[in-house]
Design goal:
It contains eleven helices and 37 strands. By secondary structure, it is α+β, with helices and mostly antiparallel strands. The strands form eight sheets. Strands 29, 30, 31, 32, 33, 34, 35, 36 and 37 form a nine-stranded mixed sheet that branches. The protein has a four-stranded antiparallel sheet with strand order 1-2-3-4, with no helix packed on it. A four-stranded antiparallel sheet has the order 5-6-7-8, with no helix packed on it. A hairpin with a 5-residue loop joins strand 9 and strand 10. The radius of gyration is 26 Å and the shape is globular. The two termini are about 30 Å apart.
């Protein structure tokens, strides 16, 4: 189970060349005027910029990327598109919007925005410096899977844009006994996935539409639906000749009860669809080769997987554009692959993959052979884009002490340099806490990786409280990346230990499978072994003042831990799973339990109850704060409610904070800030105050 922070689209601004020069001059003067750096606090959080989605222009001279500013006081997130010169790093233009896409000739930029009562795709003309509205894009909250791409793209000649949108409201299927007259406000469903991320099914289907780019402004024209019908289509890519569009669709008898994504093409002129794959598992995000003869894509091979946080690693594959048997790319790379694309020239495929906490950009020949790792730092490099001649690429990169910035390098990864400096204001003010990565051997000899962030202001001879932080998934992973919540805890005086127990991705398929049918087993022992190792190596850890926290599966593990050991004096559990049996029937995706525990609850009840924290709650003594969104349908709030009520009945200190309108994770800036402050206050109360160190001396476990 995973979660993201969403940003709403609101007004931005335009930077003139004079303003750019003024900013540059101010930055040159800044070093002698800056105040001393300090540990990160919530007062600094608004200086952090979310940098994403860099797009290199066809000629390789300009990058368009998204920079999001978060105003916690105003409870507002403002995404803006920045155009920046590759040669100089100078900003050419800034405007509100997201998801920039260059036209094939590089003269225009399509993007998403909601302005002037028009929400959908806009086109910005570089020469005239004017945007025009192209088409409204209807959407739905329906859950089609974590690897679904609801994208849009220019046709190769620039004459049209294809996009993924939803159709008009479809009628609800009648019950088997027929329609029953009655109250108008009764909601009736006859499908498994009647829930969406934060609501209930509107029965809208997701299709591919095409609209001419000459439309817009005063020349509005209706889009043409290419794939009408009763199935969902998404993840589109144009063929180089512009005649076909490849896409993904699950057209099994009951898509709600499967994840059998297959690759299809549709003829743009006639609407005729052709099926390319027919496998028992799922394919994703097809991309055409430059010559139009092949299609590359990430895919699974197991017959049963889950729409969210699968144990199986995706790998890169390639096949003939006319169908046939797919063949693997870089088959020897035992890592989870993402963002598969072709080099604009030649027969080389690019992709990203995680390895021991780093995410790197790779490339490999489509004809076979090993993968070449192009970015090799202890960092996370992803969201890459290449120019038309495959001479250079841009990507987002961050590491343990540097938040995300846009970087540029040759298409072979050489000559990498930082292009943007959106985090300079934060880093001029904040000194990130020191972090060390270490590896330990777990109970059964399995090597496991961990990261230990030291409390800011660590003084020799003093002891400090420690927070064990647990990632979601279970197949997520911590890594060599800047994490604001961790830095805030460290700045508040806490050490933070993050561990990638078995089940985490980035260590190969066998390691990822390590938690299947065993949530709370080997993964829990990995966490405790890592904690013991950290304590043995760091005399500053006060073992009488330790806390634990995590969200989603990390919340599950937090709930599990407080039922297994009394060593933690406080816990903060975010949108957690506590009862695997009731979770199955109330969650948006029932397939998670089916895939992770290899069966259905009525056939597998003893196993599911065995690994449910609620089954062992009578042993819990740890004061616990539960944080949960009220409309979370990934992990319903009832999961936190069950655990919270049980603790209160047992006389254990517990508090439940409910966040109105929130789904799986907190998206409103005010709620994000509240969750951080509430977490700090909870740990301060039960661990004696984060900023206070204790004198060195004996401390038991």
């Amino acid at each position: 189970m995973s979660y993201v922070i969403r940003a709403s689209i609101v007004a931005g601004f335009v930077l003139s060349w004079a303003a750019v020069a003024a900013v540059a001059a101010a930055q040159q003067r800044a070093p002698q005027e800056r105040a001393p750096q300090h540990a990160m606090t919530t007062d600094d959080a608004s200086l952090l910029r979310l940098v994403s989605d860099p797009r290199l222009s066809p000629d390789g001279r300009t990058v368009a990327y998204v920079r999001t500013r978060i105003d916690y006081a105003a409870d507002r997130a403002t995404p803006e598109i920045v155009l920046i010169e590759v040669a100089t790093g100078a900003a050419r233009h800034v405007m509100p919007g997201s998801s920039p896409q260059w036209s094939p000739d590089g003269r225009s930029l399509a993007f998403l925005d909601d302005r002037d009562s028009h929400s959908g795709i806009w086109i910005y003309d570089i020469a005239t410096d004017r945007p025009r509205f192209l088409v409204s894009v209807a959407s739905t909250d329906a859950w089609l899977g974590s690897l679904t791409v609801k994208n849009f793209a220019w046709s190769p000649d620039g004459s049209a844009i294809a996009y993924v949108g939803t159709d008009s409201l479809a009628p609800v299927a009648p019950l088997p006994t027929g329609d029953v007259p009655g109250a108008a406000d009764v909601k009736v469903y006859s499908r498994i996935m009647y829930k969406t991320r934060t609501g209930f099914s509107d029965n809208r289907r997701t299709h591919i539409y095409v609209v001419p780019t000459a439309c817009g402004g005063a020349a509005m024209c209706p889009p043409r639906v290419l794939t009408p019908g009763s199935f969902d289509e998404h993840s589109l890519d144009w063929s180089p000749d512009g005649h076909r569009i490849a896409f993904v669709s699950d057209r099994s008898p009951d898509p709600d009860n499967s994840y059998a994504n297959d690759l299809w093409t549709v003829d743009v002129a006639t609407g005729q669809t052709t099926r390319l794959t027919d496998t028992p598992s799922a394919e994703f995000a097809p991309v055409w080769s430059p010559d139009g003869r092949q299609i590359a894509f990430p895919a699974w091979r197991r017959p049963h997987n889950t729409k969210d946080s699968p144990a199986e690693d995706t790998h890169a594959w390639v096949m003939s554009a006319d169908g046939g048997a797919p063949r693997p790319i870089a088959a020897s790379l035992d890592r989870r692959v993402a963002q598969v694309s072709w080099s604009p020239v030649g027969a080389t495929v690019y992709f990203t993959a995680a390895d021991h906490g780093s995410i790197s950009i790779y490339r490999a020949s489509a004809a076979g052979g090993p993968a070449q790792r192009l970015t090799t730092c202890l960092c996370q490099s992803q969201q890459y884009s290449l120019d038309r001649g495959a001479r250079s690429m841009v990507y987002v990169q961050n590491d343990l002490t540097h938040p995300s910035e846009v970087w540029v390098a040759g298409a072979d990864g050489r000559g990498a340099r930082q292009l943007t400096h959106d985090q300079d204001s934060l880093l001029a003010r904040v000194q990130p806490a020191a972090t060390e990565s270490f590896e330990f051997v777990s109970f059964d000899g399995t090597p496991v990786q961990a990261w230990l962030v030291k409390p800011s202001g660590l003084r020799p001879g003093q002891r400090y409280p420690l927070i064990l932080s647990i990632h979601g998934g279970p197949h997520g992973a911590f890594g060599n990346t800047f994490t604001a919540t961790t830095q805030l805890l460290a700045g508040h005086g806490y050490g933070v230990l993050s561990i990638n127990p078995r089940g985490s991705n980035g260590y190969g398929q066998a390691f990822s499978d390590g938690s299947v049918r065993n949530w709370g087993g080997g993964d829990y022992q990995d966490l405790m072994a890592g904690l013991d190792t950290a304590i043995q190596r760091n005399a500053w850890i006060d073992t009488t003042r330790m806390g634990v926290t995590g969200g989603s599966y990390g919340g599950f593990m937090t709930d599990w831990i407080i039922t297994q050991t009394p060593r933690f004096k406080a816990a903060v559990s975010l949108f957690s799973v506590s009862n695997l049996v009731s979770f199955y029937g109330t969650s948006l995706y029932t397939d998670l339990i089916e895939a992770e525990f290899n069966g259905l609850p009525w056939d597998n009840y003893p196993l599911l109850w065995q690994w449910s924290p609620l089954a062992h709650v009578a042993s819990a003594r740890t004061p616990t704060l539960f944080l949960h969104g009220e409309v979370d349908h990934d992990v319903p709030i009832t999961q936190s409610e069950e655990m919270y009520v049980a603790l209160r009945k047992l006389g254990v200190a517990a508090t439940l904070a409910r966040y109105p309108g929130e789904g799986h994770g907190f998206h409103r800036p005010a709620h994000i800030l509240d969750s951080v402050l509430r977490t700090e206050a909870w740990f301060d109360h039960y661990l004696g105050g984060g900023a206070g160190a204790s004198a060195a001396g004996g401390s038991g476990q």
